[in-house]
Each structure stands twice: as structure tokens, then as C-alpha cells.
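Write out this protein's structure.
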Amino acid sequence: MLFNRSRLLFTALLFTLLPVPTLAADLATLQTATDTIWLVSAGALVFLMQAGFALLESGMARAKNTVNVLMKNYTDVCFGSIAFFVVGYGLMFGSNPSGWFGEDRFLLLGGEHLDYSLLFFQTMFAATAATIVSGAMAERTRYRGYIIGSVFIMGLIYPIFGAWAWGSLYSGNGWLKGLGFIDFAGSTVVHSVGAWCALAGVLVVGPRLGRFGPDGRPRHIPGHNLTLVALGGFILWFGWFGFNGGSTAKAEAGIGLIVLNTHLAAASGVAGAAFTLLLLRRPLLASMLVNGSLGGLVGITAGAASMSPMFAIVTGLLAGAVVIISGELLLSLRIDDVVGAIPVHGFCGVWGTLAAGMFVDGRLFDPQQMLVQVIGVAAAFLWSFPVAYLLFQAIAKLGGLRCSTRDEQQGLDYAEHYELAYPEFQQQPLHPAIVGAAGDRAAREERHVERV
């Protein structure tokens, strides 16, 4: 005991002997290093969410499309990251005197140490917005057309709205940020924008073959592996602690409240989805409950730092109900969303953004704040949906968006990637007519004629 007291006194004496400016500089350096470690670690967690999306989406798709779904999730972040580095980050976070878009920091010219960490973290957010589209348009969208769309989403559509709500990190403010719009980690900026792009893509590409009968009634097309769905849901839940917690952009005590709210909302989302299914006398499908948790996570993302845990539970409960009800709405409109991305990310993103304005700790149900939230939600839709619709229409006309009927029936693994996810169980041979270069050319010409 005496030794510990002596050591503390000796340490205090050493600090008193240090010049004050030197001590302040050392503390500032330590804080910067700590912030960097937290931000990079959180960004890595968000990157792990790509694996969660890949597992969940491939599990909800049929076995014959597994490779196609996996490759879309694996490579959209690759091509999109380059686009975000070249132009997206500058548009979103560069100096923004107009309030509409950034005008510098393209290629991160003139960047410093913390800029690199912020770019890394925000690249993962941009990738999330693009990946949302993949699941909704699965099983009938050509790989090349999807990748082109994801590059434009990460390089243009997402950054422009992000500049309105979150810009700038250097000088100026986005016009929506100037109004006091609350979207802490992106219920609208990331998730709703991605979902509205997905809605545009789904409307352009159309439903899968056989998804709706002649009378318009939906036919159930089950996914092939619920184990992958559940595992993907767990990984997304885990990664979301970095998604929301890392949005502080620094290591601070408030992270505890943020990750607690995140977890409570996800758990409540499952409960809300289960209660709604029971009220509708529907079976408690595993895929619906997993989506309920994701809806709760999307819902809390906007207000994770500004509401109490009790209201985080309320937000999650209602988000779970929104997932089920909005999914039924889409089916009644004959909109085919394979994984339920639009209900989870779009409708729950809207609800979460409104909840962030309603449940501000200390300012409950502030009408002015609620009006700003409505403006932000509307602006996100009015920007992202029309631009994405034109983008996918252009891809459909110029490069091809929907695969041929034959390719859809055979499966896009076979048609586009020349490999199968489960070769031991899928008996279909890999392009048996292809023998050498001549056979390869003939087969490609035959498939090209069919598409034309």
C-alpha cells in the first residue's frame, strides 16, 4: 500500500516538472491516436458487414444464383471504393460553399492523417448503400449491369445527398445540415438512399419469372439456405456496433449509449416483427425475424446518439412492425424484392429518421425538428429515386440490365460465371457444348443472339 502511494506521488511529481505546452501537445497527440484507432477499428467492423450482406442475400436466393449474389457483394465494394476515392468523398465532404456539393478533396489531395481514416470509414458507408441494391434485384439482374449501377451510386447519388445532410468536413455546410437535420449514422443518408435506388432498379428490371401469378397474387420462392441468412444477420448486427459507434468519429464516453441503443433496437425489432406476424396470423418465418432485427438496426441509426434507451426500444418495436407491413404493401403492388431490402432499409429508414426527430432527449416531439426530419426524408427520395431510375433505364437500354429468360431459368451462376456454388448437388453440367476456343465462341454468340 505504501509502495503504491509512493509511486503515485513520484508520477505526479514528474508531470509537474513537464512544461505545460509539452504536456498539452502530448495529450493532443494521444487523443488523435486514440481517435484514429477507434475510427479505423469501427470502419473494419463496417467492412465486415459486406460479408453479412453476402451471406444473408445468397441464403435468401436460390442455390442456382449463389455465386452471382456473392460476386456482386464482393466486387461492388471494390469498384465502388475507387469511385468514392476519386470523386465521391470530395462531392460529399469537400468544401461546400453552395450547400449542395463539395468542391475539393477529390483523390484526397491535400489530405492529412485523420482525413485518411475518415475516408476509409466513409467508404464503408458508401459500400453499404450500394450493396442494399444487390439483394433487392437478385436472381434476374446481370452482373455487369449491377456493377455499373453500384459505381454510380457510390460515386454520385450517395455522395450528393450526403453532402446535403453531412457536409462539409472542411468549410461550408450542406443545406439540410444547416436546417438542423438529425441523422446521426445514416438511417436516411445511407439506408433510405440505398433502398430508393433499389426500388428504382426493381421497377426497371421487373419481377422474377413466376413470382406473381396471372391473377397478380404472389407466389412464394424460398431461399436455399436459412443458416446463411441467420449467420448473415448476426454478422450485420455485430458490424452495426461499429457502424453507429464509429459515427462519433472519435473515442468518447458517449459511445456506450450509442451501442446500447443499437442493441436494444435490434432486439426490439425482432419482437415487433414477431408480434405483427402473430396479429396477422402468419407463421414466424426465420427470414422475417432476421429482417425484423435489421429493421430495428436501421431505425435506430439516425437517433442512436440523441435518444434514451427506452425510446430506442420503442423505435425498434415499431421498426419490426414496419418491416412486415411494408413488405406486404410491396407484394400487393407486385414489386419483387428478393430479400426485403426496401422494407428494411427504405421504410424503416424513414421511420427511424422521423423517430430521431420525435424522441430527442430533452426535446420530445419538437414540431420544428419533426418538420426538418420530414423535409430530409422527402429530399432523399426526390433525389435518389428519380436519378437511380434514369440510371437503371440507361443501363437497360445500353448495356443490358435483365438477363435472358433462359439464363434466369438456368441460374446466373451457370450463365454468367461458368461455375456452380454446389457442384456436388447441382447436376447441371457446366456448358457442355463448349469445347475449345471455337466452341466457346459459338456458345457466346448463341447466348448473345438470345439476349438481343
